[in-house]
Every structure is written in C-alpha cells, then in structure tokens.
Amino acid sequence: MLTVELDKLGLRPGARVLDLGCGRGRHLHALALEDGVSAVGVDLAFDDVAATRDAFALIPHAAGWGVAQADALRLPFPDGAFDAVVCSEVLEHLPDFVSALTEIARVTKPGGRFAMSVPRAWPEWICWRLSEGYRTTPGGHVRIFDAGRLRTAIESAGFAYRARGSAHALHSPYWWLKCLVWRRRDDHPLVKTYQRVLEWDLMKRPLLTRALETSLNPVLGKSVVMYFSRLETA
Questions:
Q1: DSSP summary character for residue 22
Q2: pTM
Q3: What are φ and ψ of residue 227, in 5° steps?
C-alpha cells in the first residue's frame, strides 16, 4: 500500500533513495524493485527495521537495498548522499519536525527530490476527538499539520514545491471506527470486517473501489502527499 507515487521521484538507474521512517518497509520494498535503484530504509524502531530486513527474503528480485536503525534528527549519512528521500507518515510523530527537515535537506543532493506525506487535518481532527487513546498512545501523533504551513516549513528548509496529492480515502472511515471503539479496536467485529474489506481491495484492486477512492481522495483522503525538489543552493 503505497502513499507516495514513486514515478514522481524521477528515479533513474544508479539513483540512491532514502526511506526515512520506513516502518515495516512498504515504500522501501517497492523502491528496491525499481530498475537500478539503491534504496536504504531507516527507522528508530528496531523491531520494524528487523521485520523490513526479513521481508526482503520474500522479494527475490530486489537488488540494492539496506536497512538501519537511526534517528531522523541525526542521520548517519554524509551531505548530499541521496538523489531522493521519501518520508511518509513520519513527521506527525516528531516533536522537533523542523530539525528533521533540516537533516532531510542535508542528505538530499542539490536538485534531488523529496516526497512526504502526513495525515490530512480534518480526518485527523475527528480521530483526536473520538479517542483520547489515539493521540496519547506512546509513539503516536503529536500534532495535526496544516498542509499550507507545512509546505512553507519545507520550503524554508531548502526545497522548492512541485506537486500535491492525496491518498487512502477509504482508510479515513476505518480509523474513525477504530477510534470510536478504541478499547476494542483490534478485535471489534466491525473493525475486523472493515479491515478485511481494505485487504481485499488492496489485493484485488477492483475497478469500483479504485474509482471510488480516486474520486474521494481530494476531500477525504487520509494522507496529504507533497513533492519537492532540493534547491541547488540553500
């Protein structure tokens, strides 16, 4: 389930890409299948890094890849190390997201691409209102972003805005439902049924649900996605 559209990264053979906050590797695994691309995933959670590494055993065609445990505020890479950086559903977890943007700019090659996503403000606000546990769980979301202000912060870090998109409209009601029954969010029958529908949609990709989500994404999409280029001088 990809949030970022990888074809907007302008990747060519030989490109090096960082998946910052890779989680269990949904973007990293796809990046490693791009022709001639070397992809590195980092995350602060060691268990997620280990799971991402182990999953590569199921992707025999993946070529250049690596994983590491690392802090977004102190990335273990030299300046300009990557042609592109992906940071999907990460910044909302970071108390000091501005320092993370500074690090992202540092490791992105001048002219390189940066793609990021965060939860859309109004669906996220409903989650916060429905469940205190959703926003107070350790490691959870510490802020609701205004997309316009976030764009300004990214531009101030040394990037030029390129495009904006949205994704996962069918997931917004799923999270509202989970928040509504937060104490039983993992075993409530309605949540489990909705999850099976989402998994079916992901695997089968029927035309009806794909068309429905595409039409709803601009308004209801759970994630806002933005694409940038690193300024040549910053």
A1: -
A2: 0.96
A3: -125, 140
